[in-house]
Design brief:
Helix content is 23%, strand content 38%. By secondary structure, the chain is an alpha+beta fold.
Amino acid sequence: MQQEIKQIIEKLYNEHITEQELFLVDVDVLWAQKKRITVVIDSDTPLTISHCAEVSRKLNAVLDEAIASEEAYDFEVTSPGADSPLRLFRQFHKHLGRQFKVLLRDANTLTGKLEAIEDNNLVFLAEEEPLADPSKKKTKPKMRLVPRTVPFESVQEASIILSFK
């Protein structure tokens, strides 16, 4: 039932949401004792509460009929949280210049600033430890920054590093 509802929501979103800058990131359906549908949207421009409210109104208008459930459920349209990992390639464009922690599919990680997006690649200025110099005392070497091009399909999870400086 959960997967079916998720597919219905995705179809309704594509049919009824016409604002080109908005896009669907995820649909989370909890259909147990407490029933809840959470739709996560994002935008190519800054996402506002008005965007979420508009999408909520449009989907809510057609949702009850599409799901055909007699049971009550909570319905919410929200933006990705500040600490939520980016899931779609499209989300990276508005985060150029920000610091990321990236887990790659090969289990390696990198930390760095998103410098550019080229085709399907993300270009980071990544922190990398220099090779240890055995002639020097045991001091921690300073991290160096090196350009690193990462194909998007190699990214398992990418999170923005929040800075409160």
